[in-house]
Design goal:
By secondary structure, this protein is of the alpha+beta class. It is 19% helix and 20% strand. The protein has one domain. Strands 4-3-2-1-5 form a five-stranded antiparallel β-sheet, with no helix packed on it. The longest helix is centred in the first third of the chain and has 8 residues, at 19-26. The termini are far apart.
Length: 111
């Protein structure tokens, strides 16, 4: 198991780790699924992989567990009441774009 690398706060943008990322980090069971993920990550949760959301609340009794997230396109996360541990997510960082003036852009694309 890996150590918690980030302390999350309410309002943080997060991304659920990819399926393979979870397997690489926690190992694979005989069915080809991630194993030993804190909180448990089952096949029905696979749709969460790669999804981006914001933390709505954190379990005060278990600070490594997220109580609720918002902005998941599919609301199954609320109906099924998954345990979402900080081991399943990572900080979401949007790509930063660099502003380029028109002359520089033209010189970059000319052959």
């Amino acid at each position: 198991m890996s150590a918690i690398e980030h302390e999350f706060q309410v309002g943080d943008a997060i991304q659920f780790k990819d399926w393979q990322e979870l397997i690489d980090e926690f190992g694979e069971n005989r069915l080809g699924r991630p194993k030993d993920v804190p909180g448990g990550f089952n096949i029905q949760m696979r749709y969460l992989c790669g999804q981006v959301a914001h933390i709505k609340s954190i379990d005060s009794g278990r600070p490594n567990f997220i109580k609720t997230v918002e902005e998941i396109e599919d609301d199954k996360v609320h109906h099924r009441r998954w345990f979402i541990s900080t081991a399943m997510i990572k900080p979401y960082e949007e790509c930063e774009t660099e502003e380029v003036d028109a002359d520089s852009f033209i010189s970059m694309i000319q052959f």
